[in-house]
Amino acid sequence: MLTLTWLTLSTNSLAQDNAVILVYHHVSTETPSSTSVSPEVFAEHMQYLADNYQVLPLKTVITKLQQKQPLPDKSVVITFDDGYKNIYQNAHPILKKHNFEYTIFVNPILIGKADYQLDWQQIDKMAKEGVSFANHGNAHIHSLGILANESHQDWLTRVTLNVQDAERLLQKKLGYSLKYFAYPYGEFNHSMQQKLTSLGYVGFGQHSGAIASHSDFSALPRYPAAGIYSKLASLKVKLSSLAMPVSNVTPNIAELDSSTDKIDLSFNIDSTDIHPNNLACFKNGNKLEHVNQGGQISMTLSKMRKPGRHRVNCTAPSKRYGNRYYWYSKPFFVPTADGEWLN
């Protein structure tokens, strides 16, 4: 199916089957640096987008890609996670200046109850000015954490209710339900992906990469654009990236246990517009050796026992678009030996 879709699109502009989603958290100089961007740098980002890209609503992009309809080349979506008040104070005026529509993933049970969160009056005002709101769960939890004496089915029921309860509250407060869910901390596993997909949700992670009609809509990548990722020079490369057409990913899981030290990762690449010999892969910034056998890429990942979030990023230049790169990111999530999850 992937190959047929790709070959059909190759007769048109491959770039029209492509978009980039950015994710921010804080726009402030008084919040944790790892998840923050200053208002000045954020304004620089938005001006660059205004000058060079087509900023579109998330719903427009998702709908068109799901229906395999063309998008404008260089389409970008702006999203925020967690619904912090500084989005309203510092980011919204900049976005409004450019008439950019954007989406905030919120924990609705916290709205108006925590002083660092948006309140419903602010959300109502922003909604009238082009902002949409989507689901980040009622409680901002590590979804992969299993409680003491909790079965796998009980865990799945609990984390699913966390999503569904939040969606019902958003529907009640906003009058609409997008059924878009951003995984807290970007963490997910195969069971959760399958369950939410069966309920009609589109899932969003925090691993890197562009999206296309052939992407996995249960866990779409978004480029973090704050903290160490906020430099415009590196962000420019990501904004111009294309979604790498991969298939047959093995292992098709993201959650690992703390006893796993090595993993053999493999996937196939459609090389219609890719120079596979120029593929480069990295894990947490370190270059990986890989083998390419007729378009099947394989590599061994080591030191996977370390708790936290691991990420393999692979890039390869486009044949048709000389200065643009295809990008694929595969995340892995590892708890501590005690089963705890790191923030």
Provide the CATH topology of the largest domain. Answer: TIM Barrel
- Poorly predicted regions: 1-12
Number of helices: 8
In oligomeric terms, what are we looking at?
single chain
Sheet having the most strands: 6 strands, parallel
Distance between the termini: 38 Å
Fourth-tier CATH superfamily name of the largest domain = Glycoside hydrolase/deacetylase
Report helical residue fraction. Answer: 25-40%
| Relative strand content | 25-35%
Strand elements, count: 19
- What order do the SSEs take from the amino end to the carboxyl end, as H and E? HEEEHEHEHEHEHEHEEHEEEEEEEEE
Domains (count): 2
Backbone structural class: alpha/beta
**What overall geometry do the principal axes of the alpha carbons give?**
globular
* CATH architecture heading of the largest domain: Alpha-Beta Barrel
* Mean pLDDT value: 95
CATH class of the largest domain: Alpha Beta
EC number: 3.-.-.-
Pfam family, one: Polysacc_deac_1
Enzyme class: hydrolase
Keywords: Hydrolase, Signal
